[in-house]
Amino acid sequence: MSPKNFPTLLPDLQIGLHYRLRNIKDLYFHEALSKAVKNMSISSIDSELNSLVSQDALQKLASFSLRGEALFPLPILLKENPFLLGYYRLLYGFSQKEFYNKGPFGAFKAMEEKGKLSKNASNDLEYLCKSLISTAQGFVSQLDDISLSLIAELQLLTVGPQLRGSKNNEYGQIATQKTFSIIKDLLKNYILSSAQTWIEVKNDSGRIVKIKFSSDPDIEIIEQLKSGSRGLISIEIKGGTDLSNVHNRIGEAEKSHQKARHRGYFEFMTIISVDIDYKNLKSESPTTSHFFNLFKIADKNSDEHQKFKDTLASIISVNI
C-alpha cells in the first residue's frame, strides 16, 4: 500500500491572532485597568463610584471581592486612559460596529482606537458613563456569579469576531501600539513623563524629546529646542501580514514620509510585518532611511532589534 501524503496545514491565522490578542490585552483587558488605577487616587475613584453607581450594585460586586470600576466606567478613569472604553464595550458584548453606530457613541470612537479624548468627547464623558453604567447595572443584577476570570471570558467572546474581521485596520492599530511599547521600553531610563499616547524623555544633551502617536506619520519623535521644535524621526508602521499587498503599503508610507520631510524631519523609518528583502522596497520608498520588521525588533535577541535600538539611540542622543 503506497504511503499517503497529507499536506501540512499552516496555522498562520492563529499565530496572527495570538500576537493581536496579546497586544489587545495590554490595551483593553484587566491589565490596562490595573495600570490606570495604580496611577490614580483610590478615594477619587470611590467618590465617583458612590456618586454614579447604585449602592446595591456596588455591594453585590463587593460580595464577590470586586471593586466597582471592574464593571462600571467612570469619567476619571476614561480621562486617565481613554483606551479603557474598549474594556467596557467588550465586557458588555457590543461589537465596534454595533456600539459606535448607535446614537451619540460614535463621537467617542477615537478613545478606543487612538487613546485620544477630544474636547467635545470630554464635555460629554459623564453622559457616556451614566449611559454605560445603566447598562452595567442591568447586567450585574442578572448575574449570579462575577469574577475577573468571567470578565475576561466575556471580553474574549466579544473580541473573537473582531480579531477575524477588519484585519488591516486592526493589524495597523496593534502594530503601532506594539512599536510604541518597544520604544517606551528602550527609553524607560530616560522617561520624564508619559501617557497612553506620548512619552517625554530628556536626552543626554539635556533636551526634551517627545514621542507620540500621530495620524500621519503613525509615530513622530520631536526634539524641543530653545528656538522651537525639530522633527527627528517620522515612523510609518504597516501591520498587514499579506505579502502580496506589501508594495501598496510601502507606497502609502512613502507619501507620509514625503509630507514629514517637507515639515523638516530628517530620518524616516518604515516598519513592516512581513518578511521581505528591504532592497526590494527601497525603490518604492526612497525617502525611508531605515526599514525594520516588527516581529524582529520585538525579539531582544535579534540583530535587527539591536540595529533598531542603536539607530534610535543615535538619533535621539541617548545611551541605551
What does this structure look like?
The chain is of the alpha/beta class. It folds into two domains: 12-164, no CATH class; 169-316, Restriction Endonuclease. The protein has a seven-stranded mixed sheet. It has 16 helices and seven strands. InterPro entries: Restrct_endonuc_II_XcyI (IPR019071). One of its GO terms (biological process) is DNA restriction-modification system.
List keywords for this structure.
seven-stranded mixed sheet, Restriction Endonuclease, globular, 13% strand, 320 residues, alpha/beta, 16 helices
What share of residues is helical? 40-55%
Give the C-alpha Rg: 22 Å
Shape: globular
Q: Please give the order of strands in the largest beta sheet.
A: 1-2-3-4-5-6-7
Q: Can you tell me the number of structural domains?
A: 2
The computed structural class is alpha/beta
What is the strand content?
Answer: 5-15%
Whole-number average pLDDT?
A: 89
N-end to C-end Cα span = 62 Å
Sequence of secondary-structure elements: HHHHHHHHHHHHEEEEEHEHEHH
The low-confidence runs, each spanning 5 or more residues with pLDDT under 50, are: none
Largest sheet: 7 strands, mixed
The number of E-state strands comes to: 7
Organism: Larkinella punicea
InterPro entries: Restrct_endonuc_II_XcyI (IPR019071)
Keywords: Endonuclease, Hydrolase, Nuclease
Pfam family, one: RE_XcyI
